[in-house]
Each structure stands twice: as C-alpha cells, then as structure tokens.
Design a protein that fits this description.
The protein contains six helices and three strands, in the order αββαβαααα. It is mainly alpha-helical and about 150 residues long. Strands 2-1-3 form a three-stranded antiparallel β-sheet, covered by helices on one side. α3 packs antiparallel against α4.
Length: about 150
C-alpha cells in the first residue's frame, strides 16, 4: 500500500537549484522534509555519497541547467525576435562573434524584449520543474486552483 506524504517545498530554492550552472555543486531534494540543499561536487566524504546512494528514494539529485539547455532556450528566444537588426546582434553574441557583448547586456537595452525573455524563462523553468516533480511522483498545486476566502 502506498502512502501519501505532504511536504512543503520552497519553490524559489528549487528553481534556483534548477538554474545552477556551476558544475562544482550538486543539489538535492529531501523528499521527506522538502529541504533543498547542495554539496560540493568534489566532496570526498564516502559516507555521505553512500548515504545518498542508499537513500535514493529519499534524496533526489536535482538536474542542473547545463550550457546546452541554456543555449537551446536562448536560440529559441532569438528565433522569435522580430527586429531583424536585434536578431543579427543576438545571433552574433550567442555565436561568440566579436565585437558583440553578452546577450543579457545587449537585451537590457530593449525593455520589451527583456521582459519577454524573462517571461519565457519563467515559463520554461516552471514547466521544467513541474515535469521533474511529476516524474518523481511529487505533485504541485497550481496557485490558480487555490481559492482564498474573501474576508
């Protein structure tokens, strides 16, 4: 018989773990407490890693955002940019061509595109985190479905 275990997970901490680009950290979610924590990837504590391996059902390793996923997302964003000049600059930036700067620095001069990029990132991350939670039999409650009584 399966038991349902309600646990509160701090959404911001979970999203931060998913957006981690640092290869020197490994993030985990404790399914029993909802705690999100990280350890150095180079941690040489055999007992710790053995405990993580033995308790795989309890401690889930959180997949980090890698360069390939980020690049694929940004390529999709650039493909949707309608301004041909901006699109050319952003394509130059993502390909590393000189004299272009960092993509986020360039986009900061275009408030509407910057806002659209942030909205796309939020949607992408929300979807990615929710799919991961569901794949690990952890379910979320949509805030839109929660009815707060009016006083």
């Amino acid at each position: 018989m399966a038991f349902v275990h309600n646990v509160e997970i701090e959404w911001d901490e979970l999203v931060n773990a998913f957006t981690n680009l640092r290869g020197d950290q490994v993030h985990f979610l404790d399914r029993q407490t909802g705690e999100v924590f990280h350890v150095p990837a180079t941690l040489e504590d055999e007992d710790f890693w053995r405990q993580m391996e033995t308790n795989r059902e309890r401690f889930l390793e959180i997949p980090r955002m890698d360069y390939g996923v980020e690049r694929q997302f940004m390529t999709g964003f650039i493909g949707a940019v309608e301004d041909g000049g901006l699109k050319k600059i952003l394509n130059g930036s993502i390909s590393g061509a000189k004299p272009y700067g960092k993509l986020n620095d360039i986009i900061s001069f275009f408030p509407e595109e910057s806002e659209r990029l942030q909205e796309m990132k939020d949607e992408f991350l929300t979807s990615r985190v929710k799919h991961w939670l569901e794949a690990n039999n952890l379910y979320t409650i949509d805030a839109d479905m929660i009815r707060i009584p009016r006083l």
